[in-house]
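Our preliminary data section would be incomplete without showing what the modeling component actually yields. Below, a chain of 395 amino acids is followed by its predicted structure, encoded as tokens that our downstream tools consume directly.
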Amino acid sequence: MRIEELIRLIFVNIKANKFRVFLTMLGIIVGAATIIMVVGIGKASQEAVEDQFAMLNVGTLYIQTAPGSGSSFKLGIDDMEMIAEKSEYIADVTITVASRETVASSYGSYDGSVNGVTDNFDDLNNISMLAGNFIEPGDNESRRRIIVLGQNVAETIFEDVYSAIGQQVTISGRRYEVVGVLDRVGDAVQGISVDDSGFMPYETVVNYILGSSSKPRIIAVANNIDSVAPAIIEIENIFMDEYRSIGGADIAIRDAGSKLVAAQDSAKTMSVLLISIAVITLIVGGIGIMNVLFVSVKERTKEIGILKALGAKKSDILLEFLLESIIISGMGGIVGIAFSFILTPFIEYLEVAVSPSINGYVVAFVFSIVTGTFFGYYPATRAAQLKPIDALRYE
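Predicted structure:
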């Protein structure tokens, strides 16, 4: 039989059983739409992770006093300078300390994080200025009473962010001059919400706000990602040598790269889990196709006998039923893709980020075709193996 005759027979049968074919396609439609949603949600999750760590150099190291150690050792600027001087694997280093404070002006107040930092903190974290200046060299040594505000803070406690420059704010009863306002960042940087924070010279925060309760943290950036592991060992040795007289410094070092990898792995695991659910849905749809084709073979047994009596080969019958399965699953995949366009706004309305992609559509359609082919082959084989005489006698 010619291929066009087979296809005409297939569509005649589909047209004659529209409702049953639609019910058969439902599993494929739901499965295809689910795959697209799953791939979109997984992609959006990975993009969210990448955005969250976009401001973070994966070669960043966090050095702090080991938690729960009971040690009285406390990091300081001397330790930061020691790392900068002695480490071969570190490109840049800074020290920070943070306190939760109320920043107040005559216009309003804001509860946020006040961070003591050095003058290279902005460059190290790719922070830019909207107005004014960041902390400059010499501000730490002089313990200058100045502050740089994040945008949310500046907008809340001043009528206009640009008018904040040169104004005074009060923190813990002391007055500080606003010398700069930062560009909006949105995401956290080094665990700090920049837009909701104020930045002051490190020594100013330690001496005028925190005192002995300060818990400094050193942030170092390795020369490159390959330098992270040797940098950790090198820093541990530097501290051990420097504080050998007191048995070494009890410090803990974490690298940002491992946090990024862990977050990405978590997002990928979730994507794989969701895709597995979608594949199970498609398998259920495929079983539906197989069952319907078995029924169709039974119903069309005499038709098969007539076709064989007229000279149709086994391969013709096999191809007819297999193509019918593939066409039904392909149509289901196309409808599922169309349904995903309707489903996406609804999912986003539920505050679940979805990032549809061509890859998702291709994967959904390919899975639909593969499902139809796999589950349609056995019923098609059964139809092709029917003997003409038995098929013609079938009641």
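The first helix runs from residue 3 to 16. The longest strand covers residues 90-104. Preliminary results of this kind motivate Aim 1 of the renewal.
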